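User: Fold both of these, please.

Assistant: Here is the first one.
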Amino acid sequence: MSHLVLTPGTLTLAQIRDISRGKVSLELAQSAIAGINTSSAIVQQILDEDRTVYGINTGFGLLANTKIAAEDLQLLQRSIVLSHAAGVGQYMQDATVRLMMVLKINSLSRGFSGIRLEVINFLIALVNAEVYPCVPEKGSVGASGDLAPLSHMSLSILGEGEMSHKGEILTAKEGLKIAGLEPIELAAKEGLALLNGTQASTAMALEGLFNAEDLFAASSVIGAMSVEAAMGSRSPFDSRIHAARGQLGQIDSASLFRLLLGEESEISLDHANCEKVQDPYSLRCQPQVLGACLTQIRHAAGVLEVEANGVTDNPLVFQDTGDIISGGNFHAEPVAMAADNLAIAIAELGSIAERRIALLIDPNLSKLPPFLVENGGVNSGFMIAQVTAAALASENKTYAHPASVDSLPTSANQEDHVSMATFAARRLRYMSENTRGVLAIELLASAQGLDFRAPLQPSVAVAKAKAEIRELVSYYDKDRFFAPDIEASIDLLMTASFNSYLPAGVLPSL
């Protein structure tokens, strides 16, 4: 478990990746406390002066012009949490909820939300106790904030709903007991501050980003393996080609292939004088395709890092003037578009990998045995494994349709344009699983192809990667139950071990 002293607004992508992938012990920096208290005091001053301010002593959405009596303000905050907890579907994974909670804590602690330190400390205590609210995946359009998911997250403060602890589903009261907490009453503005915000969609988009980074690294390593297995040329990775175009992602991707392939290998020397003029695009154009994906990953990383540190509830409290201003920072359009770009990159990583598998099993292109198996006819080899890869790559084409261009008005047309960011981000997990499956099959296929090239050896890095999969899956000498081989290959990719093959700084969070 890592320990993080949180200075609000300063989370790095590396820290966020650690929170996403492992448990965290969270501590709020002392420097944040004064601003939190000042912001909360401004809200109280407005109540003391009986001023009417949206979000503090009014209704919400279409009911914004309805003033709420002072004696009903606590009931108002409780009611908004209960009524907005209307999500459906499977519960989010604990890791997703943990990240969402840390992002919400980070935002609330900036001192723009008018929420008491007590409430923020309550959320920190839940994170530290590994007791996570149960949050349904579906029900947000990513506009007035991720209202339903964040409401389910906030139910625990009231002692309502269900919670998860070490894989067990508990009542909120049981979960709070583990964390050593008692339910608390929310004060004016606090329910709205908790519910408004983009933390659910941002958390899922960040998970998609980290998956995309892992998939890019795996695609680079496995793509280099396929170059060697197919006796592809190293010429397309020459730095001069890519410098002439000037696309940085492409330049960096080509550099990775030169690193992974080295200047030469026994395999490359053996076919130095072959008659083949050019390789198919799935080998030759890897820097162009993977480089474009890298560019999208980097762009999305920049947007999501800013969003993870931003203040996205409404209205906002400005301490320097005491003003409370209503706006629309909860609209998650930046997250939705970043997620859409990641979706395209993830789909393309799988698409070109599937084409490399098709190349390797085709003897006319690869000069390897048909379907990468001896005694073809009796053995079908990788025939249907490639079909599986094609099914996964094709499914991703549908998922890659942009979600951000869709909108359905909500809240009696008060919220008349929405981002659909939560689905845009959530579907990245399904897409990552699909592309991971494609790459897992290519990893098996390229290792099989390299075995057929023996005793000729590939580059050092390619040989190392081949050894990793061969520790788990043996050479495919004849037909056997194939699915366990694919699962073992997927498990290897889940470890993200191929990230270590890339120099630091290539990927934004590593």
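And the second sequence with its predicted structure:
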Amino acid sequence: MPFTKHRRFCATSLALALGAAALTACGSSDDESKGDSGPASLTYWAWTPGMDKVVDLWNKGPGKKEQIDVTVKKQASGDTLVTKILTAHKAKKAPDLVQAEYQALPTLVSNDALADISGEVGVVKGEFPEGVWQQTTLGSDAVYAVPQDSGPMMFYYRADLFKKYDLKVPATWDEFAETARALKKKAPDKDLTTFSANDSGLFAGLAQQAGAKWWTTKGEKWKVGIDDGATRKVADFWGGLVKEGAVDNQPMYTPAWNKALNTGKQIAWVSAVWAPGTLTTAAPDTKGKWAMAPLPQWSKGEHTTGSWGGSSTAVTTDSGHKEAAAKFAAWLNTDPKALDALAKEGGIYPAATAAQTSGAFTEPPAFFAGQQDFYPQAAKIAKTAAPGAWGPNVNVAYTSFKDAFGSAAKNRSDFGGALNTMQDTTVADLKKQGFGVAP
């Protein structure tokens, strides 16, 4: 890690809701003293396809008027970009703006890499669902980014095969389990779905829906609750289905998984709003045969979903043009033309509520052409997204999940033990990094 324990602790304290004033106390933000008037040339690190074309709209329009020019530098995503940002920040050479996944924000904030832009972008809070906006504040009065895209979770199923096997779309997880068992009785060679351990975001989203809060704060310490009651309920549910053979135990995104989807061996998928794009390449022969419904609920009558994926636009503490950078970040993620271009060029699902049923989202995805209410329904589901609760070592937790749950799924063994391993590994890593950890 690039900072001493003291500095890291001070920066972490900011994330623990000590507010924007803590920035000055930590000596972590000198951008208030930097000049921010006159022409500005900003650099933006992002991975979204076609982002340069979207930014051109700014440079030729609002940016030209305000003399704020933005240059996009294409980057890799995920942990690779986080590491690159932290390395650049250590040398005080981070770009003005970065695209950051929500779960990466605590890591960047705890390393003092992101500026509090609440004063510049707070006015756009109402443009986003509360559960999404909350992920950019880390539970404090500060705002560390503007939401860009989101991944509300939902249930996808082969409508033709549900009809063939006389299956009902499950409204609850109990009904989901019964549907899986009913399919096995009627067609033993088919699976309702699979439990996959090669994408940690799926499990994290399911835990969020159940009410899990994996990282919270207690005083000036982090508290890890990966093994909390909500997550254990999710782990036990899926572990039970895998153990009894009611669902498959194979990972997603493999040739075998693609074939299962394409041939109808797997007839449903718990996924997110971006699933149509994946199905287009994974199961091309099934176009027009799928339908989307809300995620099953833990109790009948509830309306809550989790999130799988999503990113934001943040301003770094190294930027000498914080106000200009924040102004661009707000425009990029709230302007109708910008959001329409992001959807068409980058394939994103916007976090801004108004954009979810306009522009590129007035017609359903081509793969779901027969479901005219696809995006109106998705917009309703997006509003019910549970807030995320991320910490400064999500990467460690995710790696532990893949290892522990991957082994448990393969062996059809107890998922509870895998959850314990994930909890213990995450706590041990926080302590090793020098963070205070509450019991």
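Confidence is low (pLDDT under 50) at residues 1-34.
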